[in-house]
Design a protein that fits this description.
The complex is a heterodimer of chains A (74) and B (691). With 74 residues, chain A is α+β, with helices and mostly antiparallel strands. Chain A has a single domain, classed as SH3 type barrels (Roll), CATH 2.30.30.90. Chain A has a six-stranded antiparallel beta sheet with strand order 1-6-2-3-4-5. Chain A starts with a strand and ends with a strand. By secondary structure, chain B is an alpha/beta fold. Among the domains of chain B are: 257 residues, 3-Layer(aba) Sandwich (Rossmann fold), CATH 3.40.50; 218 residues, no CATH class. The longest helix of chain B has 45 residues. Chain B is elongated and about 95 Å long. Chain B starts with 41 loop residues before the first strand and ends with a helix. Classes of the chains: A alpha+beta (74), B alpha/beta (691). Chains A and B meet through helix 1, strand 3, strand 5 and helix 2 of A and helix 3, helix 10, helix 16 and strand 12 of B. The complex binds guanosine-5'-triphosphate and magnesium ion. The site of guanosine-5'-triphosphate has 27 residues of chain B, from helix 1 and helix 4.
């Protein structure tokens, strides 16, 4: 069931299903955030900024970016 | 030209506009270059992801100091030093070699030009960091790898097989804990044994084909990966970016395989610092923690340093001891009128006496003794009036020597030290990227993303340095907005200190009004710029480093360096400014200037006409101008109006120079002149409404 990363709830783990196109896509792949990668949503801030955990690294992601990434539940 | 971050040692001039010359003949573009250095010296370049410890390595190897802080993007300019027979370079942190942003452009050119590379990686985040490592290897560069942060890897019970990593990459690998100097003695051998590693075999044919066109394997790889800048340099069209993604995915998969082979992980509980780090970005605890941090900052900088400490150093040590000693010494043989006031606990005058020494005080030791006796045992203000105009210029009311000394050493230096100490603790703790996370949404209102909070906060230390740090923002639009806000609405440490001291006298209502005006102005400027400048705000994608206890040594060293540069930068301007004001005063021109500015200062800003002096001083440096207000008698609301005006001035000549360099002549000039107009308009409106 694909959904947007921006809608995942705090504490849930999801698998990345699709990335945005363009430079951002290359940058995410570089960081290891690509199709198939599992990420955990550590925090959801008011306004939708997310804190993700991905192989021991905490990453802050704005809600616009998260809305361009699709994920599927595990 | 200021050298805002590092000393004369490392040369810093590489911007995205200056490219180093290419190592191969045939494809020359005329390029100005400081990085060429001594052509007989080989270039040893430190490369790595952001915040992995490159600058700690650089400092260790070079014996110099460049900024070390716990947030990604500390180093935004290349620093250069000599190390053994090499030219050693520290570079901005990057996640890969390409042209996605300024840091990458700067790093890319120096990497292409490197003779050998020491790649520093974070042992805890090998998955992330080895992507760059593999890319460097694919570029055919001789590489040695230092796996740093092994202390944190051990803490997280990560077991890293360095020998296996060395085998997989095909380049030498050492393990280090740079901050404790553990393993650093091995770096010498590492540098001697760097070599080209195991390239991705599937790249081979393509690279070979391109190599004949572009001349170096590094550039060939970048062209293959669709780097538009490098391709254009060789008159080639960029390959479509889908081929880049394929190469990236390929490399990413290879890295994941390597990591699976060399890292084993025993699950452990969470560390306390990571729990705290988590809390700082939680919707419930985030704001209370921010409030506590701001409160502590205010208590330390605003109360302890700006009021208690500066009250002591400025009026007691500066005015009553040092200045009296100097002026008294000058009065030995010079005709002097001395006034001594005894003052009470609230600076009210209890008793006053005049002592006249028409032939200098040596001619009348008895009277001098009387003056001293009158002062002794009381808090006393001394005023020296000399008849010789030259003496007045250097030692009188605005004496170039005495005023520079008091302002710099006893007013500003303690403030600057206090600020930098507080900022360094903040920078080294790892809190700033978390603050960026919680303000991300809010900053969007003014067209910025959360990351921009980092230069804005650094601006409270030094606007000049912070203007350079705007490079870590994603787009030109964001850089322009952030630079404007920095130049107009963020008071730097020296100035904020004086402001805090003045507002302390003016009272809480004045303070609240001042803060509200400056804040609303900041929001108004940001919002309108965000509306006016076309384009979008880039998305926040920010690594949050672990929270760490700041290392005392680094905090002290960083504070010392920054204070030193502040003093070095500000002292000549203060002296020249004080000299100019003093000469204006002696020649009577100051009164003329004050009369000339009377409509503006008295009618519009509703200040005493002497305040014109402070504004003239503020044209040179706004901290200097604010300091000029320090000795004036203003009502609380006049203080607010004067401070609002001077705060919105451009900070100092150095910041203007840097701004022009970073943002270009046209944009820089607009911001510069705009600041004076807006300052007078807003300051005047405040005055008209309040006074
Ligand atoms: N625990 C630990 N901390 C380290 C180690 N090496 C560096 N640090 C800390 O990591 C942070 C980043 O160090 P820097 O030298 O500024 O990193 P950098 O790679 O130059 O970072 P950028 O300039 O932002 O790319 C600082 O807070 C250092 O004190 C280490 O081996 N162990
Ligand atoms: Mg650095």
């Amino acid at each position: 069931m694909p959904m947007l990363l921006s809608t995942v709830r705090k504490g849930s783990r999801v698998r990345i299903a699709g990335l945005p196109l363009g430079d951002m896509r290359s940058q995410l792949i570089r960081l290891g955030l690509m199709e198939g990668t599992v990420v955990e949503c550590l925090e959801r801030l008011p306004g939708g900024t997310l804190v993700l955990l991905h192989s021991r690294q905490e990453v802050a992601v704005s809600t616009e970016l998260a809305a361009s990434i699709t994920v599927s539940s595990l | 030209m200021p050298s805002p971050i590092v000393d004369t040692g490392p040369e810093r001039a590489l911007t995205s506009k200056t490219h180093p010359p290419q190592p191969h003949a045939g494809h020359h573009h005329p390029r100005t270059d400081i990085l060429a250095g001594d052509p007989s010296k080989r270039k040893l370049v430190l490369v790595g992801n952001p915040n992995v410890g490159k600058s700690v390595f650089f400092n260790y190897l070079s014996g110099l100091y460049v900024d070390v802080s716990n947030f990604p993007g500390t180093t935004v300019e290349v620093a250069k030093a000599s190390y053994l027979e090499y030219d050693l370079y520290d570079t901005p942190g990057i996640y890969g070699v390409s042209s996605f942003n300024d840091e990458e452009t700067v790093a890319r050119d120096i990497i292409l030009n490197a003779d050998l590379i020491v790649n520093i990686v974070d042992g805890v985040h090998l998955e992330r960091d080895l992507f760059l490592t593999q890319q460097l290897i694919d570029m055919g560069k001789p590489v040695g790898v230092a796996v740093n942060m092994l202390d944190e890897a051990r803490h997280q019970k990560l077991d890293i097989d360095l020998a296996a990593l060395e085998r997989e990459l095909g380049v030498p690998v050492i393990g280090t804990v740079a901050t404790q100097r553990e393993g650093l003695d091995a770096i010498h051998d590492l540098i001697r044994s760097v070599r080209e590693g195991r390239q991705n075999p599937s790249l081979h044919a393509e690279l070979h084909r391109l190599l004949s066109v572009v001349g170096s394997q590094g550039e060939a790889l970048l062209v293959l990966e669709g780097d538009p800048v490098i391709a254009a340099r060789h008159g080639l069209k960029t390959v479509v970016s889908s081929s880049r993604d394929e190469l990236y995915i390929d490399r990413r998969n290879r890295v994941n395989t390597i990591v699976a082979q060399v890292v084993s992980h025993a699950q452990t509980g969470r560390r306390l610092s990571s729990l705290f780090g988590r809390a700082t970005v939680s919707p419930i605890w985030g704001l209370p923690i921010l409030a506590v941090i701001l409160f502590l900052l205010y208590q330390f900088v605003g109360v302890l340093v700006a009021q208690d400490l500066v009250g002591f150093t400025e009026s007691t040590v500066g005015n009553r001891i040092v200045e009296v000693a100097i002026k008294g010494a000058v009065a030995r043989n010079a005709a002097t009128e001395i006034t001594v006031e005894r003052v009470g606990a609230h600076d009210e005058i209890i008793a006053e006496r005049n002592f006249s020494f028409p032939d200098g005080r040596f001619a009348n030791p008895a009277l001098w003794k009387e003056a001293q006796d009158f002062a002794s045992g009381h808090t006393a203000n001394w005023t020296f009036k000399y008849s010789n105009p030259w003496i007045v210029v250097f030692f009188g009311e605005f004496g170039a020597i005495t005023m520079t000394l008091t302002y710099l050493l006893f007013l500003l230096m303690p403030l600057v030290i206090g600020f930098y100490l507080a900022l360094s603790v903040l920078e080294d703790s790892g809190y700033l990227p978390r603050l960026a996370t919680i303000v991300d949404r809010t900053l969007r209102v003014i067209g910025l993303n959360g990351r921009a909070i980092i230069p804005l906060i650094l601006g409270f230390g030094c606007v000049t340095m912070a203007t350079i740090t705007t490079r870590l923002l994603g787009t030109n639009r964001e850089k322009t907005i952030a630079t404007t806000i920095l130049q107009l609405a963020i008071p730097c440490s020296a100035q904020l200190g004086v402001i805090a001291a003045l507002l302390a006298t003016a009272g809480p209502a004045a303070t609240a009004i001042y803060a509200a005006v400056i804040f609303s102005f900041l929001v108004a400027v940001g919002t309108s710029m965000s509306r006016l400048i076309p384009g979008e705000t880039s998305a926040l994608l920010l690594d949050l480093p672990p929270m760490r206890f700041p290392r005392v040594g680094n905090v002290v060293q960083k504070t010392a360096y920054k204070t030193y540069f502040f003093m070095k930068e500000a002292s000549p301007w203060f002296f020249v400014g004080a000299l100019a004001v003093s000469i204006l005063q002696v020649t009577g021109a100051l009164v003329a200037v004050q009369d000339l500015l009377q409509p503006l200062v008295v009618s519009w800003l509703k200040l005493p006409k002497e305040a014109a002096t402070a504004f003239v001083m503020g044209l040179v440096r706004r901290d200097f101008g604010a300091a000029g207000l320090y000795s004036m008698d203003l009502s609380p609301y006049q203080t607010v109006a004067a401070l609002v005006t001077i705060t919105l001035f451009v900070p100092c000549i150095a910041s203007v120079v840097v701004m022009l360099k970073e943002r270009g002549l046209k944009e820089g000039m607009i911001i510069w002149t705009g600041s004076f107009v807006l300052a007078l308009v807003v300051g005047g409106l405040v005055a008209q409404l309040l006074i």
